Amino acid sequence: MTDTAANFIARSTIKAEDLEHRKKINFNIGRYNAVVPQGKQQFGELNMARERAKNIKWRAIETLDQQLEDFEAAFSKRGGRVIWAENADQALAEILTICKEKNCRTIVKSKSMVTEELKLNHFLEDNGIESVETDLGEYIQQLDGEPPYHIVTPAMHKSKEDVAKLFYEKLHTKPNLTPEQLTLVAREKLRKKYVQAEIGITGANFIISDIGGIAVTENEGNARLSASFPKTHIVIVGIEKIIPSMNDLGLFWPLLATFGTGQRITVYNTIVTGPKQPGETDGPEEMIVILLDNGRTNILANPKSRESLYCIRCGACLNACPIYKNIGGHAYGTTYSGPIGSVITPHLRDMGEWKHLSYASSLCGNCTEVCAVKINLHELLLENRHEAVEEGYTSFSEKIAWKVWRKASLNRNLMNMGSAKMKNWVVNKAFKAWTAHRDELDFAAKTFNQRWKDERKG
Q1: 127 contacts 95 by C-beta, under 8 angstroms
Q2: Residues 330 and 43 sit within 8 Å (Cβ to Cβ)
Q3: Among 187, 189, 190, which residue's Cα sits nearest to residue 179?
Q4: How far apart are CA 429 and CA 406, in angstroms?
Q5: Would you give the DSSP letter of residue 110?
């Protein structure tokens, strides 16, 4: 077992027994479950909408190279600059170069999972640059020194009392402030930073190929401020976020809103196609889009796993997953948690080091059932397991155990042989790895086959 897998098991064991944590998560996911059905009512044929979205993403990913080149050409015509980053180090180096050119000391940043993937805040801090999260959930997590807990709602694991205590400790506010008061405190702190910042950094929910623009969806407006107040706007986005046409947003924006937060549409939906143009009064003087690979072409090259690139990061699969609801987002130890994280992380990083995530699933299929773009997530988890075995990332003892199990389960005489007590001992004691993190198996006194024969004789 790798250290990464051992850490995952240790963290998940602790969280699974933390009843207070489970109470908070079930409360917040319960609120999500209450509003999502209302959002879905806006679709006359929800299944058809999901299928159509999947087909659009299929076309975009199958022609990814051309779509990205079309985006770059259209974006560049309006004075924007595109940087292609093969990995995290290249992306960070490019960002640091821009910061030095602008003599940047302060950056305002909107919510972005891809910047979490790069560990951008830590990198900037190490280089003497202040990076301030402007999304309220991300700001709370930054104050607490934690990464996001959830793809959509970063501070889902915290109650309002937890946030009030955190603000009291970090910002020296009065204890026991209400959520409204806490929001006003954060707003007051953050608004000053927009004026000070030399650079604003955002992610993008979608890259729009035909018009050369990026689309941002949010509920607080902080991304708009981060993109327009500072003189330089940097967008960092994974290459898989491409969609062919601006018209496709008519489908994807409502889908993302409904499956992400249960809304019909989010409060702010913005398309940005470049820096401020002649005659315009708003916007940055310079806009740079960094197109990040960082392992995504590994998934693209895999015909079976390629489907996972269709993900629009709505987070619905996390809210539906019984594993996530028990162990929480931080137990995974990686940027992308839950079912989608378990599918893509072994390909984005290292299969041998991260294969254990693909086994952290009951394979109930609920993630596939709720996916906004109908990704067959539970099948992809099985495919990851298969790849891990094919690539030799299994121990000798595990191989022997499964060979014995296969031999026994496919041979009726072996299945009927011996008492239940003997079978229990073989599985629970001889192969201790099975019961290390599971309840013991308890075989029936007679197999179904034996009972069937006894009934027939009777």
Answers
A1: no
A2: no
A3: 187
A4: 18
A5: -
d(CA 60, CA 196): 39
In this structure, the strands spanning 213-218 and 206-208 are: antiparallel
* Non-local CB neighbours of 168 within 8 Å, separated by 6+ positions: 174, 175, 177
Which of 247, 267, 294 marks a domain boundary?
294
Is the pTM of the predicted complex or chain greater than 0.90?
yes
Instruction: Tell me how far apart the alpha carbons of residues 354 and 333 are, in angstroms, rounded to a whole number.
Output: 10
Distance in angstroms (rounded) separating the CA atoms of residues 185 and 179: 10
Whether residue 112 is found in the same domain as residue 63: yes
Are residues 389 and 422 part of one domain? no
* CB 121 within 8 Å of CB 326: no
From CA 22, how far away is CA 157, in angstroms rounded? 9
Q: Whole domain around residue 284: which residue ranges?
A: 42-294
CA 39 remoteness from chain centre: 22
Q: Cα–chain-centroid distance for residue 12?
A: 18
Helix/strand/coil for 105: coil
Structural domains of the chain, count: 3
Running DSSP on this structure, what letter comes out for residue 303? T
Q: Tell me the C-alpha distance between 148 and 110, whole Å.
A: 13
Identity (one letter) of the amino acid at 236?
I
Q: What is the pLDDT of residues 312-371, one digit of tens each?
A: 999 999 999 999 999 999 999 999 999 999 999 999 999 999 999 999 999 999 999 999
What does the DSSP assignment read for 316-350? HHHHH-HHHHHH-SGGG-SSS-HHHHHHHHHHHS-
pLDDT digits (tens, 9 = 90+) for 310-325: 999 999 999 999 999 9
Same domain (yes/no): 445, 357: no
Cα atoms in the Cβ-side hemisphere of radius 13 Å centred on 241: 28
State both tokens at 20. 């207070």
End-to-end CA distance of the chain: 51
**Cα separation values, 341 from 180, 336, 348, 381, Å:** 33, 4, 10, 10
Backbone φ/ψ region at 387: left (φ over 0), alpha (ψ -120 to 50), beta: alpha
